[in-house]
C-alpha cells in the first residue's frame, strides 16, 4: 500500500492508474478505523481496480467546543487494517496541506436539508464535510466513492452535492456495521466507559422496537395512525423510540425524527425509503443512529 501525504504524490500515482485504464474507488474517513470503515474498503476493493482511503481529521467540520483535539488518532493501526483489506493507497495529508495559509473557498449546500437533524445542533458541520469531500474528489478523481448509511444525513447531503455540482462520481451507500448488542460501530464509541457502553445499546433497542411497529403497519394508537390506517404514523414510531431511550437514565435525547429519505424534511406519515434518525448523548458522548423504513 502506498502512503501519500501530499496532494502531488497522490495525484501522480492516481494519474498513472487512470492512464492504464484502471477504475478508482475512494473511501473518505477520519481514521481510528473499525469494522464499519473496513466494510467500505472491502466494498470498494470488490468494485474498483484501485482503492484510495483518506485518513484526515477534518477541522472544518468540527464546531467550537466539539472534540477536534480529542478525536482518536492511530495512523499506524489504520494502515495495518487498510493493508489487510487490500487498499492500494492511503492519503494522509496534514491540515496545512489541505488548508494552506490563505485558504478561503468553502462548499455550502444551502438547502434546508443541512439544517435538519444533526445540522440543528452542529451548524457549519455539513459545510465542512462538503468542502473536504469536494477537495478529496478533486484530488483523487474517483469513479466511485463509498459512504456509510450510519451517517445517513451526510450520505444524503453528499448525494445532493454531487448532483448539484455535476461531479461525475457514483456514490455508493453501505450498510451500518454494528457491535453484537446492536450499537453502531463508531470511532467515538471509544469515549464511552463500561457503564456508558452498556447504556449505549439503548439506541439500537429503540430502533428494533420501531422496526417492529413499522413492520406491523399502522398498528399504533395515535390520532395520526387512526386517520389513515394504511400508512405508518411517524408519531407512533417516535413515541415508541422516545419511551425506550428515556428508560435509560444515562441517555439524553438530542433528536429522534422521521424525515423524507432524500430531502430530509419531516414527515407525518412514513413510506418505504423514509428515514428515522436519532442523536442521543450517553454521558458526554453524542451518538447517532438511524434506520430506513
Ligand atoms: P468517519 O471516519 O466517522 O468520518 O467515517 C468515515 C466513513 O465511514 C463514513 O462514510 C461513515 O458513514 C462510515 N462509517 C462510520 N461508521 C460506520 C459503520 N458503523 N458502518 C458503516 N459505515 C460506517
Which percent bin holds the helix content? 25-40%
Radius of gyration: 20 Å
In CATH, the homologous superfamily of the largest domain goes by the name: HUPs
CATH class identity of the largest domain: Alpha Beta
| Helix and strand run | EHEHEHEHHHEHEHHHEHEEEE
* End-to-end CA span: 39 Å
Number of strands: 11
The strands making up the biggest β-sheet line up spatially as 1-4-3-2-5-6
Overall mean pLDDT: 95
- Count the domains: 2
Shape by Cα distribution: globular
Q: Structural class, from secondary structure content? A: alpha/beta
What is the tally of helical segments? 11
Query: Low-confidence runs (pLDDT<50, min 5 residues)?
Result: none
**Beta-strand percentage range:** 15-25%
> Tell me about the biggest sheet?
6 strands, parallel
Amino acid at each position: 500500500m502506498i502512503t501519500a501525504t501530499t496532494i502531488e504524490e497522490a495525484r501522480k500515482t492516481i494519474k498513472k492508474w487512470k492512464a492504464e485504464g484502471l477504475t478508482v474507488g475512494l473511501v473518505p474517513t477520519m481514521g481510528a478505523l473499525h469494522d464499519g470503515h473496513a466494510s467500505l474498503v472491502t466494498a470498494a476493493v470488490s468494485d474498483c481496480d484501485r482503492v484510495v482511503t483518506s485518513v484526515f481529521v477534518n477541522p472544518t467540520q468540527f464546531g467550537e467546543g466539539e472534540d477536534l483535539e480529542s478525536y482518536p488518532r492511530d495512523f499506524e493501526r489504520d494502515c495495518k487494517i487498510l493493508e489487510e483489506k487490500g487498499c492500494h493507497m492511503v492519503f494522509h495529508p496534514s491540515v496545512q496541506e489541505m488548508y494552506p495559509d490563505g485558504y478561503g473557498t468553502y462548499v455550502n449546500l444551502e438547502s434546508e436539508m443541512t439544517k435538519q437533524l444533526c445540522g440543528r445542533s452542529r451548524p457549519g458541520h455539513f459545510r465542512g464535510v462538503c468542502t473536504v469531500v469536494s477537495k478529496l474528489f478533486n484530488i483523487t478523481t474517483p469513479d466511485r466513492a463509498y459512504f456509510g448509511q450510519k451517517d445517513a444525513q451526510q450520505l444524503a447531503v453528499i448525494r445532493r452535492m454531487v448532483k448539484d455540482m455535476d461531479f461525475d462520481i457514483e456514490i455508493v451507500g453501505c450498510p451500518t456495521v454494528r457491535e453484537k448488542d446492536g450499537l453502531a460501530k463508531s470511532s467515538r464509541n471509544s469515549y464511552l466507559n463500561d457503564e456508558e457502553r452498556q447504556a449505549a445499546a439503548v439506541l439500537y433497542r429503540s430502533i428494533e422496537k420501531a422496526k417492529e411497529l413499522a413492520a406491523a403497519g399502522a398498528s399504533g394508537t395515535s390520532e395520526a395512525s387512526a386517520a389513515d390506517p394504511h400508512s405508518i404514523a411517524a408519531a407512533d414510531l417516535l413515541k415508541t423510540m422516545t419511551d425506550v431511550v428515556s428508560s435509560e437514565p444515562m441517555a439524553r435525547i438530542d433528536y429522534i425524527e422521521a424525515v423524507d429519505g432524500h430531502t430530509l424534511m419531516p414527515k407525518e406519515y412514513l413510506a418505504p425509503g423514509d428515514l428515522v434518525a436519532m442523536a442521543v448523548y450517553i454521558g458526554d458522548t453524542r451518538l447517532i443512529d438511524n434506520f430506513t423504513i
